[in-house]
Every structure is written in structure tokens, then in C-alpha cells.
Amino acid sequence: MTDSINVDPAELEKFSSLAHHWWDMESEFKPLHMINPLRLGWIDELASLQGKQVLDVGCGGGILADSMARKGAHVTGIDLATKSLRVAQLHALETGTPNIQYREVPVEALAAERPASFDVVTCMEMLEHVPDPASVVQACAQLVKPGGWVFFSTINRNLKSYGLAIVAAEYVLNMLPKGTHEFEKFLKPSEMAGFCRQAGLAVTHSRGLQHNPLTGRYWLNEDCSVNYMLATRRSHV
């Protein structure tokens, strides 16, 4: 793997080592399974997935990609973690998920290959794991058609997010493996908005993702102080 690829080998290894757990609802990926209906519902409400050409960037084991295909979208999932992609492909085969394909390709390379090819692009829980998140945002903007939607999710960078997303989630509650996140890679909404503007994307909506560890409940609201999602659109010109 060359230095020009926007990837951290340690991050790839981290997720590859957990690949066999992707579809275990009680594993380290349980939070992703819990929040997926919320993410899916919000994306579908804004972008109306039925019949759309959709790209899921950093798809991992295919949790979101699979659910978008089941909403009637034609989905391509991309990732650089080979083992995770194999799990995603196997799950699609086993469950008969329609209209879905997976590719091991950097998002920047796909942007050069297939510019303006997708109605919707999603990039969830990925930006805080790559060396150059602005490059990923730019590539996502290149991949979406004029007027199309690009959705991002990541983690804010502040004392509250450090306490909840790292100390509590990884060390106190053991919801995630220790070392899953690095605080300095978290991204403030203002930084994300800057990346989007530079890429020609307009931020139209935002949502915070909340969790009550006592009840296990997740919900969306306006509080973007820890986990948050952005809905953006590429201009029509």
C-alpha cells in the first residue's frame, strides 16, 4: 500500500481484527446496529433512497449499506479493510440482499474513476479514522451528482466528547474496544463545515446522536456536542 493512499494502516488492522464480529449484535459493533435505524431513517427522510444510486464510503461490514439496499437503493459499498469487505459480501450473499456490491478501492481513486455518478453518498464513522479527512470530503463531493446528497457522521472534539466517547465508552462501560478512537482526530462541526465549503457542498441539516447507557436507548436531537451527523448537498451547477 503506497503512502499516497489516505489511510492509517493501524486503523485498517484494528477493524480487520474485529471483522468476524460485524454482524454479531452483542459484539463491539452493537452500538452501530443500535443507531443504524436512526441513521437510515434520517437519510431516507431527506434523500428518499428508493431507486437511487448510493455510495457508502468506509462501509465496513456493510451494516448501513445493507439497510439502504433493503430500502430500494442500488448500493455500492467501499472500504480498504479486506476482511471487513469479505464479511459484507458474505452477509449479502447469505441474506440475499438485492442491488448491492462491494469494492476495495480508495474513495479518491473512485472519485477519479466515476465522478458525479451517485445520487447519494454516505460516509459514516470514518472521518475520525483517516489521516486527511478533508480529502475524503472532497472525493465524496466529486462522486455525487449535481444536486445530490452527501451525509457525514463523526465525533466532535471537546472535553465532553473525550469523556463520553473515549473514557466512558471504551474504559468504563466497555462498549467499544480500548483505542477505538483518538481524541486529536475528532472533528468540530465548524471544521467539517469548512471542509464541505471547500468541496462545494452546502450543509443543510445537522443532527446529534444521543445515548443513555442506563436504558440503552439512542435518539437524535439538535445537540451536536458529541456524536453528530451532517446532511450536505452539491450545487446544481
Automatic annotation (TrEMBL):
Sorted UniProt keywords: Methyltransferase, S-adenosyl-L-methionine, Transferase, Ubiquinone, Ubiquinone biosynthesis
Top-level enzyme category: transferase
Binding positions for S-adenosyl-L-methionine per the UniProt entry: R39, G58, D79, M124
EC numbers for this chain: 2.1.1.222, 2.1.1.64
Recorded catalytic activity of this chain's protein: a 3-demethylubiquinol + S-adenosyl-L-methionine = a ubiquinol + S-adenosyl-L-homocysteine + H(+); a 3-(all-trans-polyprenyl)benzene-1,2-diol + S-adenosyl-L-methionine = a 2-methoxy-6-(all-trans-polyprenyl)phenol + S-adenosyl-L-homocysteine + H(+)
GO biological process: methylation
InterPro entries: SAM-dependent_MTases_sf (IPR029063), UbiG_MeTrfase (IPR010233)
Pathway the protein takes part in: Cofactor biosynthesis; ubiquinone biosynthesis
Gene Ontology molecular-function annotations: 2-polyprenyl-6-hydroxyphenol methylase activity; 3-demethylubiquinol 3-O-methyltransferase activity; polyprenyldihydroxybenzoate methyltransferase activity
Pfam families in UniProt: Methyltransf_23
Function of the protein: O-methyltransferase that catalyzes the 2 O-methylation steps in the ubiquinone biosynthetic pathway.
Family: Belongs to the methyltransferase superfamily. UbiG/COQ3 family.
Protein name (Swiss-Prot/TrEMBL): Ubiquinone biosynthesis O-methyltransferase
Organism of origin: Comamonas aquatica DA1877
Phylogenetic lineage: Bacteria, Pseudomonadati, Pseudomonadota, Betaproteobacteria, Burkholderiales
Gene giving rise to this polypeptide: ubiG
